Amino acid sequence: MAARADEGERVAGTGWKARTVVGAGVELHCRDWAGDPAGRPVLLLHGLAGHAGEWDALAGALAPAHRVVAVDQRGHGRSTRRPGSVDRAAYVADALAVADRLGLERPLLVGQSLGGHTALLAAAAHPDRFGALALVEAAAGRSPGLPEQVGGMLRGWPLPFPDRAAAVGFFGGGPVGEAWADGLEQRPDGWWPRFDTEVMVESLAPLAARDHWADWAALTCPTLLVLGRRGIIPAAETDRMLALRPEVRAVSLPGAGHDVHLEHPAELSRLLAELLHDLDAGAL
């Protein structure tokens, strides 16, 4: 079935319109921030166990000059919870479907963590579809043991949370805790994730099975790499990425961990705005 998208409707009190893209066996829910049609669009992909709302602060900063679309990826948020496939190709196909059906012409593709890995593969396989790439705490190397590690962490959540405040506190409080709590749904017995842990673990299996250095080396589009000084990407892996592609812009933010986009949204939006400006000015 060919992908299609609804017209969506404005969500009261927000700057975005709720849109749904129906693709290959999945519904993908998106937040579509209207912006200057002359500006290059931006497509945002969250990380594992995340949701589109994580990007609200950043999207709001970019939206006056750019149309910005954030996606609940398959298995996450309000998108199809138990899709038929969660392999890397399925995630890539979703990114293409959203860009095509929402009319995003050669957007800047931004991804954090697992979303960054998807963005890397999408830009490598379809160099004519994306104008530039920004990876936030994402890399190309193999991650053995990651599914088991993350699965254990997710199974350790004290579910259900009795109330939203308890969830915010468990996730560390502040903007990070608020964003993670926003990814939960309220049920009669408490607050639960909008994902199934086994689907998350299965989504990580391909990252443990092989690396994607060839895909990284094959990238031709302008690329920004943003890392947290306290993030999870090994220094040796970053060094190899930059050795293979020395033209890449790389920034390491002091005081930031893996959730750079939640801890430092203003700094990240500034870096993305600079990339967009230079891209459209022909400086890249």
Model description:
- There is one protein chain.
- The strands form two sheets. Strands 1, 2, 3, 4, 5, 6, 7, 8, 11 and 12 form a ten-stranded mixed β-sheet that branches. A two-stranded antiparallel ribbon has the order 9-10.
- It has a single domain, classed as Alpha/Beta hydrolase fold, catalytic domain (Rossmann fold, 3-Layer(aba) Sandwich), CATH 3.40.50.
- The protein is globular and about 55 Å long.
- The protein is about 40% helix and about 20% strand.
- The mean pLDDT is about 95.
- By secondary structure, the chain is α/β, with parallel strands linked by helices.
- The chain is built from eleven helices and twelve strands.
Radius of gyration over C-alpha positions, nearest whole angstrom = 18 Å
Poorly predicted regions = none
At the fold tier of CATH, the topology name is Rossmann fold
How does the overall form come out from the CA principal axes?
Answer: globular
Spatial gap, N to C terminus: 37 Å
Tally of individual helices? 11
Order of helices and strands: EEEEEHEHEHEHHHEEHHEHEHH
Report helical residue fraction: 25-40%
- Whole-number total of structural domains: 1
* CATH homologous superfamily label: Alpha/Beta hydrolase fold, catalytic domain
CATH class: Alpha Beta
So what's the oligomer here? Answer: single chain
β-sheet strand percentage: 15-25%
Structural class: alpha/beta
The major sheet is characterized as: 10 strands, mixed
Determine the mean pLDDT: 95
CATH architecture: 3-Layer(aba) Sandwich
* Strand element count: 12
